[in-house]
Design brief:
329 residues; alpha+beta; Rieske Iron-sulfur Protein; Naphthalene 1,2-dioxygenase Alpha Subunit, Chain A, domain 1; 2 domains; six-stranded antiparallel β-sheet; 5 helices; 19 strands; globular
């Protein structure tokens, strides 16, 4: 096989990645996370979420084993303290008046919050942005999450699978896709680091009276975020796929939903159960792949017109790799 995009490809350092639900970050303590094969700690300092490299510069132990003291992160081993910029502010072993060595600092990452998730970028000059979260913020929608799923499948394959509109009547026959014909007529275009794909799909669901025709609008934000907006005659549903490239053996995958269910607890639970089933169906196939990484050489796969969006997605990732100064052979 030719070049593939692994979860730790250097080009991904300039992209935003979800690492945890905001609700999972303690109010008064650190949370250990991993992204792109590196250990980081997310913590609330001074009322803000910050991300520090999860390694104390003194004895290289994880700072996530420490505590928050007076708005700073204190290492649990020798009491070194760090502020939100990664600067070491105190070393208990030093005599009074002795300056803190300048090298006693910790690398930081950019932090953002969208869709109830904490996002990190490990580079100071990010490429790409975020999907529109207006429907997620709209009180008329009920928001719920399917997952997280932890899998050996790469983040690139998960995004590609979510964009693939041709597998529904086969892989998802038991959940939502049995009425679809598996021959999507796609319209695809790019706008910078964002990809748009539209199609018409037959979709069934726990909150629907039966299979209904939907106008499907997909939006992909570099590198692994995908929105699917399903418009029918009387309403719209929004589904977002977000994947964290933890390392080359592990990805964490969330599917976030905004459905107009009127606050009906039973309908929300049924919709969440159905979407969880959909995720399990996808992973049941993808985890069987010999190499669960996304090929960047489009010649190694067979494609049809039903794959136009997936092909353009690969081209966008090839451009990302090129922007990092590398080539795809």
């Amino acid at each position: 096989m030719g070049a593939v995009l692994t979860n730790t490809h250097p080009a991904l350092r300039r992209c935003w990645h979800p690492v945890a639900l905001v609700a999972d970050v303690p109010e008064d303590g650190p949370l250990a996370v991993r992204v792109l094969g590196e250990a980081w700690v997310v913590v609330r300092l001074g009322g803000e979420l910050v991300a520090l490299r999860d390694r104390c510069p003194h004895r290289l132990v994880p700072l996530s084993a420490g505590t928050v003291v007076d708005g700073e992160l204190q290492c649990g081993y020798h009491g070194y303290r760090f502020d939100g910029t990664g600067r070491c502010t105190a070393i208990p072993a030093l005599s009074d008046g002795t300056p803190v060595p300048s090298k006693a600092c910790v690398a930081t990452a950019l932090v953002a919050v969208h869709f109830g998730l904490v996002w990190l970028c490990l580079d100071d000059d990010p490429i790409g942005g975020f999907l529109d979260d207006a429907p997620y913020q709209d009180d008329r929608y009920d928001v719920f999450v399917a997952g997280p799923f932890t899998t050996r499948v790469s983040a690139g394959i998960l995004a590609d699978n979510f964009l693939d509109a041709g597998h529904f009547p086969y892989l998802h026959r038991a959940s939502f896709g049995q009425a679809d014909d598996g021959r999507p007529r796609l319209e695809v275009h790019r706008s910078g680091w964002t990809l748009h794909q539209t199609a018409t799909q037959m979709v069934d669901g726990a909150h629907l009276s039966g299979a209904q025709e939907h106008h499907a609008a997909y939006t992909v934000a570099l590198p692994f975020s995908v929105e699917l907006r399903l418009d029918r005659a009387d309403a719209s549903d929004h589904i977002w796929s977000f994947a964290c490239p933890v390392d080359d053996e592990r990805t964490i995958w969330w599917m976030v939903h905004a459905y107009p269910l009127g606050g009906d607890v039973a309908e929300i639970a049924a919709a969440r159960a159905l979407q969880t089933q959909v995720g399990i169906e996808d992973l049941g196939m993808l985890e069987r792949m010999e190499d669960p990484n996304l090929p960047l050489d489009v010649r190694v796969e067979v494609h049809t017109r039903a794959d136009l969006g997936c092909l353009e997605y690969r081209r966008m990732l090839i451009e990302l790799v090129a922007a990092a100064g590398e080539t795809v052979s």
